[in-house]
Every structure is written in C-alpha cells, then in structure tokens.
Design brief:
By secondary structure, the protein is mostly helical. It is built from 5 helices and no strands. The chain has one domain. 82% of the residues lie in helices and 0% in strands. It is elongated, with a radius of gyration of 21 Å. The chain starts with a helix and ends in a 5-residue tail after the last helix.
C-alpha cells in the first residue's frame, strides 16, 4: 500500500501527531528521483569516458595521460557509489516508514517508533539536499555560472 493511503487510514489523533509525515515522505521521494537521475548521468559519463579512453592511445605514466585517466575513473566511481548509497538510504527509510505505518495500523508498534523513523527520514532528506546542492554549486562553478 502507498504511504498516503496508510496515513489516511490512521485515526485522526494519530494523523495529527504525525502531521508532517506526508510532506517528509514526498520530499524524500523527490530526492530519491533526483538521485536516480544523478546515478544515470554518472553512468552515462562513465560510459563516454570509458569509450574515449579505449579509443585514445595512452602514454606512459611519465607521459602524463594515464594517471589523470585513472584519477577521473576513480572520481566517477566514487561519485556514483556515493549517489547509489544515498539512494539506498532514502529508499530504506521510505520502506521503513511504509512498514511502520502498516504495523501501526495493525497495532504492532507505537506512534513513538514511527516518530523516530520520521526523524531519520528528515535527516536523510537533509543530507540528500546538501549533496544535491553541492553538486549544483560545483556544476555552476565549472560552467562559469553563479548560484543564486
């Protein structure tokens, strides 16, 4: 079941106690979509860089081309791994909230446990926002644009 349906099925007092849950979940879902797009972009860049590297003759390590290629490849892998980890974190928190809503509906957990998960969701969302903002700033700087 979707989070919205589960939330709507809760008693009014519980919904009031968890009033921010729908907006936090929507924000985290939007963040997850942005991260998925970022992973796809990094995959595309890695594919293009790999093709260029395969089709460009290399030089020796003293010639100065191989080391920068390796560094670029490592940087792309690190960025992609970080984005994948953030995506996994966001999806895990979203799934935990959904399962806790099911448990809450069944009376198997308290509102307090869901409040704790909601706080974790907020933290993950804030971390993702910082990551995406930093990426935007770097891209703006590299392209010569200024950030608002």
């Amino acid at each position: 079941m979707a989070v919205d349906s589960l939330f709507d099925a809760l008693p009014k007092a519980t919904r009031l106690h968890l009033a921010e849950l729908p907006s936090v979940v929507r924000h985290l879902e939007a963040d997850a979509m942005k991260i998925r797009q970022r992973v796809e972009q990094l995959n595309d860049v890695a594919t293009k860089v790999g093709a260029v590297m395969r089709n460009t003759p290399g030089r020796s390590a003293t010639g100065g081309v191989i080391a920068p290629r390796d560094a670029l490849d490592r940087d792309l892998d690190a960025a992609r791994d970080a984005a994948k980890q953030r995506l996994a974190d966001a999806v895990t928190v979203l799934e935990t909230i959904r399962l806790d809503l099911l448990r809450l509906t069944a009376g198997a957990v308290s509102v307090d446990s869901l409040t704790t998960d909601l706080a974790e969701a907020r933290t993950v969302s804030e971390e993702v926002d910082r990551l995406l903002d930093a990426r935007d700033e770097v891209e703006a700087h590299l392209s010569g644009r200024t950030m608002p």
